[in-house]
Amino acid sequence: MYEKTKGIVLHVLKYNDKNSIAHIYTDNHGRMSFLLPQGSSRNARLRNAMFIPLSLIEFESRTLPGRDISTMKDCRKMERLDNIYSDPMKSAIAMFISELLARSIQESERNEPLFKFISMSIKLLDSLEQGVANFHICFLYHFGAFMGIQPDTATYHDGYWFDMENGIFTSSCPLHGHMLEPRKAAFMMLLSRMTFSNLHRFKLNRMQRNDILDTALAYYKLHNSTIGTMKSPEVLQTLFG
Questions:
Q1: Among the four 45, 224, 232, 237, which has the fewest Cβ within 10 Å?
Q2: How far apart are CA 159 and CA 14, in angstroms?
Q3: pTM
Q4: Sheet harboring 179-180: ordered strands across?
């Protein structure tokens, strides 16, 4: 039986000469994998254009018992997102976010707040005019809340260290070695005030932005072993000075 489904394209991998596998985060069942027929016809090219990473699509899906790969039909775009794919900076951010999501989200279960957050973020990125260079940093920080690793800012005091293993601020240096010294911990607290509506007010230079990205990814990797070594951050660090 087919059901109406909304989805966010994470990535597409070639399966064989005739098919690819599309990994999609859905509103109904979390992460799902779909068989995506390939071809050189006009219809095939139009269909493949809908599966660019972070595309917002809706379709009819069917899951068969005992099978990890589902099928879909009547796929169509929910949003055009023209700016994301025509703007080099936004395209690089989209590549980073899609890689982060593909590595971070493994659950095949419904999570409506997370689906809404990601969908909203993608639409905002497409329409954003100011502060684009800070978007991925803002997304990283707030995505952490859905992953259960957002820092506990209630524990912060001036001069405190940040304990990366436990996600809290402490008066002394943690013994395990995964920490931020007080100056960087204060910067982490500052980032907690960044939202998608005020991110253009944060004037960061190239070194600060790259340092934040490296630190945030180290924090994510400490709490999620599936993230591993990502390729897209290098592109962001080159683009955003």
A1: 45
A2: 51
A3: 0.91
A4: 168-170, 161-163, 179-180
